Structure formats: C-alpha cells, structure tokens
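question for whoever is on the cluster today: can someone run the full assembly for these? two chains, 518 residues total. i dont have access anymore since they changed the login thing
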Amino acid sequence: MESVSSPQGVADSVAPPLGGPQTRQHPHRLQGVLFQPIGDEGRAELVERRLVDAITRGHLRAGERLPSEAELARSLGVAPVTVREALLAIRERGLVVTRRGRNGGSFVAQHADPVSFAREAVRTSSRVALRDLGAHYAAITGAGVRLAARRADASEAEQVRRRMERLDELDGESQRRLLDDIQIELVALSQSARLTREQMKLQAEFSPYLRLVAHTSEEHRRQGAHLAAVVDAIGAADADAAGTRTDTMVAEIIDALIRLQAQPRNG
Amino acid sequence: MPEPAPAHPEDTMTTATDTATRGAATIVEEYFSSTIRSLLGWVGPFAAQVGEAKRAGPLTSARIDALVEPYALRTLDLQEAPVYGAGFIAAIDLPSDARSHLAWWQGDDRRQLVLAAQSLNKENIDYSALEWYRLPMSTGEPHIAGPYVDYLCSDEYTITVAAPAEADGMRIGVAGLDMLVSEVERDLLPRFAALGREVTLVNSIGRVVVSTDPRCATGDAVRSGPWADLPRSPCAGLALDVIVEPDATRP
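^ ran it for u. tokens below:
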C-alpha cells in the first residue's frame, strides 16, 4: 500500500524556520474536519491520527502549546484518558514535547511542520501516487466549481472576491489559510454538502503540497490568481471556464511536485 | 367559500392559480414565522440578562454559554418546525476573553458545538461576513439565510434563522437556529402537493429551497429552471417567494 500522506520518519527531517507570530482572523474550515467529535469509544489511535494530521498540516504549529487534555477531550468528544494515551504516542514519535512547571504543558516540536512533512512525503511517494492525488483533487474540485458556476448568484461570487482582496496584506502562512478557505467556499457554492465535505478532507490533505510548491509570496499569489479567475468564472456563470482553470491549477501543482521530486536532495 | 361563476374559462384558471398561490404563501408564512417567533420570544430577556451580567463583572465566553444554554435547548424543542441547532453568536469583541464566540447546541444529542478553531488555537472565528450574522446585525431585523452549505456548524445543507439581540441600545450579537433543508423538504412537500399544483419555494436570490416539481432541484438557480419566467409571489414578512404552476394540465 502506498500513500502520499503518511511518509515515515517525518520527525527526523530538517525543518526550515517558520514565520513569526501570525495574525489570526479567519475561520479555518480544515480544523473543523480534523476535530469533529469522534464518539464515545476509547479510540486513542484515531485521536492520535487527528492530532498528527493537525500538526503535519500546519493547524498546530511548531512551538505552539496544545490545549489541555480536558479541552481536547471536550473538543473531540472522547474521555480524557483516551487523549492522554494518544498524547503519549505522539510524544514517543517526537512530534510533541512536554515541559513541566507553571508554564508547562505539551508543545508541538520545533521540527514538526507542514513543509518538511510535505517535502518528506514527496520524496517518499511514487510519481503515480502524486499524479493520482492530482486526479482525485481535480475531479472533486472541478466538479464543485462547475456546479457552483451553474448555481451561485453573482452576489455570492462577489462576497468571495472581496475576501480575496485582503490576500496581499497577509503574511505567507495566513495567505495559505485564506486560499484554502476560499477554495472550500467556492465548492460550497455548489450547494452540495457532500462535495463540500469531500473538498474539506481533500484540501486538508492537499494543503501541505500547495505550501511546498508555493514557498514564496509570489507563488502564493500565482495560486491566488488561478483562484481569482475561478471566482470570476463562477460570478459569470461560466462552468467551463471555472473547471478548466481548476484543471490547469492542479496540473501545474502536480508538475511542480514531480519536478521537486526529480531534483537531487540538497540536505 | 362560494365564488361567482366565471365568464370565461381563462378566469377560472387564473382564480385557481391565485388560490393555490395564496395557499402556498400561507403554508410558508406559518411554517417560518414560527421559527422567528421562537427566537423573538427569548432574545429580549436574554439580551437583558447579558446586559446585567456585563455590568456585574467581566462577561466571559463561559458566562455567555451559561446564559444561552436554557434558551438554546428550549429552541431545539420547537414543535412547529424541525430545529437542528440553536444558540447565540456574540458580536465581535462582546466577550471579555475572546474576540468572537459561538454558543451553539445542535444535533440529536443536543451537544454544545466546540469549534476546533476556538478550542485548539483560541483563534477568532470571523463570521462577520456571513449572511446569517451580517444581515440581522446591519438591519436590526430577523432574517432567514440560505439555503447554504454550513461548513461551520451543521456541515449540512442548511437554512439559518437569525434575530439581532440588543442590550442598552447596542447590538450584542444574533440569536439563531438552524434547520436542515432535508427536514424542511419533508415537512413542506406534502403540504404543497395538497394544493394540486407544482409549487416552488425560492429565496431572495432566486435559489430553489424546495419544489414539488421533479424537474426543479433544490439548490438550483431558478434562472436556469422551468419556472424562470413565472411571477414570484412574496411571502409576508419573509424574504421568500413562491412560484405556482399556472395550469393544471400536467399530472
């Protein structure tokens, strides 16, 4: 079995420094997916996977303090003992460190960040797996934006466009989050709850790769320009243009990932 | 009620269409006004309690939750309409310990919604641009928002009814309730069907909420459907219109 989203040894990889303190103003749909209630059964492994995903996908960042066991238990809808068990496993994997004392608690390890995770995932994945991820993402996202173009009102596209205007004011990390949110909002305009839920899951999986490809502000803006064109197409009720532009965007990203993979590693 | 005999057959059809249209609008008005009444029944007293709490000390998110909970649970029990979620969304900067706050209970288990963004990173949820918050806060009037895919609370195709809360002359947030469109469909379709005409309910931007017409899909823009050119009849006090098929020639 092969998966592009679960490379081995991510905790050992070298991490580039993260950006400074972030301003946080947007709701982050992706976190919503990762932290939906799980249920009553003691499912430490599921909790562990959600927390690992939250770290590797950048929703909990290096150095950030995790919520208390009680808070996590409440959020995930499981018993505190289940959370404790999961945290122990994550600590053993080196993704979380625990500090004692008055300002103690569990913190995300400095080397655990989405870009190094994605870099490692790309390195260990096959080309066919990367292309398949692109095919899946383009299929869902393309279907979503095509339906959105047929169903959305021009005023709704305008609301999204207005949110995008703030892109240039934001730092890199917040730009990524805004672009992820905008993509989900566009698919939500399809009026399909299923497609939207599927998009949220896929966006969470795809987001680290989008980050990896767009490591500079200019490249973020390039992805932003693609999305802006999709917004315009939806506002103009042009389903073909919305779908075609989405296909182009995904093809560019997958090509860039495969080029990255083909490059010899330089540390 | 006996009606005067029409001079021409066309008049009969017009009268029957008018009757069906009036009937459809009444069904919609009674159904949705029950939800607005439910919110208006508690938003005033609740806002007064918030005002008192604010004067007495810091108004924390937890304090807001405690004040909202009994009203939210009562709203979930509404008999006239299926309520999936209910609660209060604080105006930006109302809580003393957060920039924004949702106090929301939903689902069969009536659990309080804990948003990951709030509980994990203590992030601020910016709902100020969302229709169900923006409109009541700017107009001061209750509003029916959607249908829309609600990826914040229900994760389903949803209609949100919201009413502004005011304390000491300030808008402090909105009281709201969610209805799942699937449940609204289950309630309204048989009532519309009894009118003997195809009935389509659309919102203010012309989106189909429910329709008895198999050709007319919920979520579609009415602009692209079979009834694009038919007159829309407004439902009193609601930003919703009904469209009724003009003749009964189709089964």
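summary bc i know u wont read the tokens: The interface with chain B takes residues 24-29, 31-32, 34-37, 54, 59-60, 64, 66-67, 71-72, 74-75, 77, 150-153, 155-156, 159, 162-163, 184, 188, 190-193, 196-197, 200 of chain A (CB under 8 Å). DSSP finds eleven helices and two strands in chain A.
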